């Protein structure tokens, strides 16, 4: 296909996918609100957004592909090497600028905002304009800023968890990223795949921490541990992780074990939607008491009706509770290197009965070469992106690769390909049943072989 034909194909993909995405917004009964308005929309916290996200992965992939195709290389390289977004956003998040501006719906002057956050007015102006240029905040008049749709969504007191998610990404993940080159050059950490040698831990040791991994670091830093738990709620909304409530036939089962379920990010909405389910949440002992308190405060009926149970587990040394219909793991295996991930899957297999299913819900790394993508489509029903997009949708699946690098930075771990998931399952005596396309993420279903 010629380059001109690629351009026309990309324009067509942009047009068609944008119309589908807009229709999904309008399906809620209201139009898409302007970015400049500090408003919420029902779709912001909707849990059934598979169709929207499928359209967006094509739209994002096609827009980025077309812009890169039509831009001189120097322009693209400049944007990617001088991009200050995370640095600017960290200032706004750490100083809780969205909270401050929420009290001033008509806008607040840089002079007044500067006094509140204790950042020089001139520098703050540079930061706020950089963010507003990327649609975070809006400059309503010269040197007067207000919240817009994006900044409105990361107020720290909202229950959506997005403030905590942003805080985690901008602190633990980005700080580890700044140390990636140094850790790779380190004679000990560079060749290691152990959690204690991740870029984050390499940095933490420089700061005097003597533990073995990120989870130990979180235990030593209670405020960041609490932020981590809330950030998992934000993950559910940001990646469409709650699509699974609608995509999978939970009504056909009676019991679920949520392994590594934290405070019940998925389990609580699952229990609300399917009250017939008996749900067991298993996580580290230090997390379990926090989970019990969370349910007592937010859904005591499920506890009183004996529908929710809380059992500590170290899934590297023990098996989960036996006999459940479903064993569900969301964003668990990506925290661990392959050897530890194999132990976890082996332990789950020990608890499963012949009728049980293991559901692994994670980001999945899909092939960048179309030949391998077609093999996956033929054998496992995972369709590659339409041409001329990259087979993995390119920018449309960028968050999968952001998470992949995030796992490297923090845990010396990774997001996995289908082949790697199948290897874990086969080695544990499990067989592949189905791939559930949740647009942003994937869920793989396995049974006993």
UniProtKB/TrEMBL annotation:
It holds the Pfam family Methyltransf_2. It comes from Coniophora puteana (strain RWD-64-598). Residues 213-365 form the O-methyltransferase C-terminal domain. InterPro entries: COMT-like, COMT_C, SAM-dependent_MTases_sf, WH-like_DNA-bd_sf, WH_DNA-bd_sf. It comes from the Eukaryota. The keyword Secreted does not apply. GO terms for molecular function: O-methyltransferase activity. One of its GO terms (biological process) is methylation. This is S-adenosyl-L-methionine-dependent methyltransferase. PANTHER family: O-METHYLTRANSFERASE CICE, PUTATIVE (AFU_ORTHOLOGUE AFUA_4G14580)-RELATED. PROSITE patterns: SAM_OMT_II. Keywords: Methyltransferase, S-adenosyl-L-methionine, Transferase.
């Amino acid at each position: 296909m010629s380059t001109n034909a690629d351009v026309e194909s990309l324009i067509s993909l942009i047009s068609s996918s944008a119309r589908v995405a807009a229709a999904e917004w309008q399906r809620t009964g209201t139009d898409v609100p302007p970015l400049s308005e500090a408003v919420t929309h029902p779709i912001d916290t909707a849990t059934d957004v598979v169709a929207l996200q499928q359209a967006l992965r094509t739209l994002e992939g096609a827009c980025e592909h077309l812009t890169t195709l039509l831009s001189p290389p120097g322009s693209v390289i400049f944007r990617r090497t001088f991009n200050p977004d995370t640095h600017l956003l960290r200032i706004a998040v750490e100083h809780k600028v969205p909270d401050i501006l929420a009290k001033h719906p008509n806008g607040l002057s840089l002079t007044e905002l500067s006094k509140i956050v204790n950042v020089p007015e001139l520098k703050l102006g540079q930061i706020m304009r950089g963010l507003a240029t990327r649609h975070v905040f809006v400059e309503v008049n010269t040197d007067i800023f207000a919240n817009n749709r994006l900044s409105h969504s990361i107020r720290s007191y909202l229950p959506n968890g997005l403030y905590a998610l942003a805080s985690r990404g901008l602190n633990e993940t980005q700080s580890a990223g700044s140390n990636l080159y140094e850790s790779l050059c380190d004679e000990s950490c560079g060749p290691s795949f152990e959690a204690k040698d991740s870029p984050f831990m390499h940095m933490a040791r420089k700061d005097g921490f003597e533990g073995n991994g990120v989870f130990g670091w979180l235990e030593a830093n209670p405020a960041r541990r609490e932020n981590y738990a809330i950030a998992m709620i934000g993950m559910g909304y940001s990646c469409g992780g709650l699509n699974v409530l609608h995509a999978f036939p939970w009504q056909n089962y009676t019991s679920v074990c949520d392994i590594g379920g934290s405070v019940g990010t998925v389990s609580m909405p699952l229990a609300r939607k399917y009250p017939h389910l008996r749900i067991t949440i298993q996580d580290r002992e230090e997390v379990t008491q926090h989970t019990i308190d969370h349910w007592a405060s937010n859904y005591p009926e499920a506890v009183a009706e004996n529908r929710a149970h809380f059992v500590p587990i170290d899934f590297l040394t023990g098996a989960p509770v036996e006999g459940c219909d479903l064993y569900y793991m969301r964003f668990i295996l990506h925290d661990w290197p392959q050897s530890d991930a194999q132990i976890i899957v082996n332990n789950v297999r020990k608890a499963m009965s012949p009728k049980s299913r293991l559901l692994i819900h994670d980001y999945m790394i899909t092939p960048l070469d179309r030949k391998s993508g077609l093999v996956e489509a033929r054998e496992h029903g995972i369709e590659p992106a339409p041409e001329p997009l990259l087979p993995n949708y390119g920018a449309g699946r960028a968050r999968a690769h952001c998470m992949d690098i995030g796992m490297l930075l923090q845990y010396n771990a990774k997001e996995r390909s289908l082949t790697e998931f199948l290897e874990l399952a086969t080695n544990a005596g499990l067989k592949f049943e189905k791939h559930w396309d949740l647009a942003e993420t994937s869920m793989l279903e396995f049974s006993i072989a």
